[in-house]
Structures are given as C-alpha cells and as structure tokens.
Amino acid sequence: MSSTPHDPFYSSPFGPFYRRHTPYMVQPEYRIYEMNKRLQSRTEDSDNLWWDAFATEFFEDDATLTLSFCLEDGPKRYTIGRTLIPRYFSTVFEGGVTDLYYILKHSKESYHNSSITVDCDQCAMVTQHGKPMFTKVCTEGRLILEFTFDDLMRIKTWHFTIRQYRELVPRSILAMHAQDPQVLDQLSKNITRMGLTNFTLNYLRLCVILEPMQELMSRHKTYNLSPRDCLKTCLFQKWQRMVAPPAEPARQPTTKRRKRKNSTSSTSNSGAGNTANSTGSKKKAPAANLSLSSQVPGLGAIPNCSLNPGRDGDLCHSTAVTPSGQFKEKH
C-alpha cells in the first residue's frame, strides 16, 4: 500500500526538510514529567529563589491553582494565585515529604486557539514521607490542566479534585514493631488528611486571608507606601469603580425628513400665503418684544438664578432696574 501525505510516516520526495512535523500530542504530559524531574532535583538547601524559579518555569504569570476535597467538617475549595504557588509546593516538603511526583493515566487532551486542556480522571499524587514515620501516600483524584499553546507551554490553570487517598506502610516496619503495641497504635493513625499534611492545610487556610491582600502588598512594593495609605488608596479606587456609571453606547443622530410641498398648491396660494405671513409677523412681533418693562413702566426685571439660597431660602431672585438706572435686588 502506497503512503499518502496524510500518513504520519509519509516521506516527501523533496527531502527531509519537507516532511511533516512530529505530532504535538505528547507535549502536555511531557511537561508534567519535566516538573516531576525538577521536583526530584530539589535539595534541603533549596530556598525561596529556587521555588520562584520552579514556578516561573512551569506556571504562567497569571496562573491559578485550585484544590477541592472533602474533610470531616464538609467540602473545601481553595484557590491561590501565582505569587502563592511557590510557597504551596514548599509547604508540601516542610511537612515531612521527601519525594513528590504526579502520575497521569488515560488523560484526554483538547486543543484550542491559544491553549491546551488536559483532563485526567485517574491522576495520582504520590508523596513519600520520612517523618513522623516512613509512609507512602497515594492521593487519587481528577486533575484538569490548561496549558498555553506556545513554545514555553506553561500551566495557566491547575484544578485537582481529591476523591480518596491511601497511606501505605511497609511490612518490614510492622514486623519490627509487632511486639510493641504503642508503636503499632501510632502506625495505625493517619499522618495526612485527604493526602495533605497539616503544613499544607494550614497554609491553604492562611491563603484565604493572603489572597485578597495581594493588591495591598503589590502597591506597597511598587509605591513604597505605608500599609494604611495602601488600604486607603485601594478602597478609594474600588469605591470609584462602584459609583462610576456604566458607559452608555454612542447613539446615532436621527435625521428628520422634510415633507415636500405641492408645487401647484404653493403657486395658487402664494398670494394668500404672503398676506398671511405679513399679518402673522405683525402679530408675533409684539409678543417677541414683550417684556416686564412694557407692562410696568419704568421698571425692568432680569431673572437671575444662583446655587446659593437667598434670605428666604429661594434659589432664584430678580434684579430690578429703577428709572434712575440703579439696580435693586428683589428676593
């Protein structure tokens, strides 16, 4: 069977430079593989600069990370922004974790204009704990990732919904402490809650307070203002946005059409119209020139309105002109 240009193994007769590019299907999962390798290269001396570089490599500047799970007191959902993501991963290791990696099985990918969405219903977050005891925790759930469709292919949204978790203790440790009931009782207790350590849970609760304060922190860092001044300016700007009226769309001016007069009627009634116009102008002329001075001889009134109330609380008052030419205010 001859190969066609639609065949992925098709080779162009013009040479290797005209071959079809390698499909881009494995790139999103490969980015998770690279992230796992970067997490494995972490050392005990990794500081905040290392975690910032890690987040910059794999997350967009406006990325968000969301965790959804259910605890004893009900369902929880935490969403943190890009500035808090490095600290989230560092708290995982501060809680006694020595290794962290993600396993994606049977993930589905959908391509859009500017992003790639990966939906994995069988995702496992595996953490290896060295303290308080040697335990392997497998946290299973659904992971939905949105990557930017560019050369960097960084994560824009991360949403991990935890369904269940398992804590695995080696049999060798159980055999070593088989005769010690206190150690066995300690081994039977969970060291995590829904696969998350207490360090991570406390940090997520703290992020509920820290996330709204990101605007204050950014303003303080940019303009070097005091915390009180940052709060005042932020509140004032929010108040301005609330009271500002919505922008109305520009209205197109409506054009009025003039009615055409009948030429025959206009010619026949031209003489009558001229006489009517002359009489009408004579009648309208006194009305146009009508003023208070014509009714009251020797007195002219000019209305004058002001925003400042008068003596009796009125906003409008008049200025009268006496026959001698002096002005006299009347309220």
TrEMBL record:
The organism's place on the tree of life at top rank: Eukaryota
Q: Which residues form a coiled coil?
A: none
Q: Name one Pfam family in it.
A: LIM_bind
Query: What residue stretch is flagged as signal peptide?
Result: none
Stretches for region Disordered: 245-292, 310-331
Give me the stretches of Low complexity compositional bias. Answer: 263-280
Instruction: State the PANTHER family in the record.
Output: LIM DOMAIN-BINDING PROTEIN (PTHR10378)
Q: What is this protein called?
A: LIM domain-binding protein 2 isoform X5
Source organism of this protein record: Delphinapterus leucas
* Gene that encodes the chain: LDB2
